Amino acid sequence: ENVIDVLQLARDCDAERIGFLCVSMVIKDFKSISSTEGWKVMSHTNARLEQELVEIAVEAELQKEDRMKKLEERKVYVELYEAMEALVHIYREGCGTIGPRDKALKGSQTVCKFPACKVLEAALRHFLGCKSRALCLQCKRMGQLL
């Protein structure tokens, strides 16, 4: 409620740490703080501070979106890397756990260390049995991977 008042006071008294904490609070909850009475008074009396806070909030939101986008991209790259590793494993070494669904693992066979093998097996089975490959998104992705 009084974050803007405390921020203005901190700037007047040259209290940088308190000012930084207030700006952080404004960034975290910009929507509700910008609707307070203190914000309205500050916008009339100190338009430069208002502009500065709006720019900081917009910049913080853009940075947050960039971080989320990079995190999502990294997740996709990790999944792609795991799939490629599993494909290399399947084609070079031959995965002992991929095979007919109705047969159980033999006693000497162990569960594959590549978690993507089962996913790729399911995708390959779908790809081979799909009747509408041209329209199927999953088949298009599998075709790109192969």
UniProtKB/TrEMBL annotation:
Keywords, sorted A to Z: Coiled coil, Metal-binding, Ubl conjugation pathway, Zinc, Zinc-finger
Residue runs in coiled coils: 46-74
MF terms in GO: zinc ion binding
GO BP annotation list: response to stress
Gene3D superfamilies: 1.25.40.420, TAZ domain (1.20.1020.10)
Residues of the TAZ-type domain: 74-145
Superkingdom field: Eukaryota
Pfam families in the cross-refs: zf-TAZ
Record-given protein name: BTB/POZ and TAZ domain-containing protein 3
Source organism of this protein record: Noccaea caerulescens
Lineage: Eukaryota, Viridiplantae, Streptophyta, Embryophyta, Tracheophyta
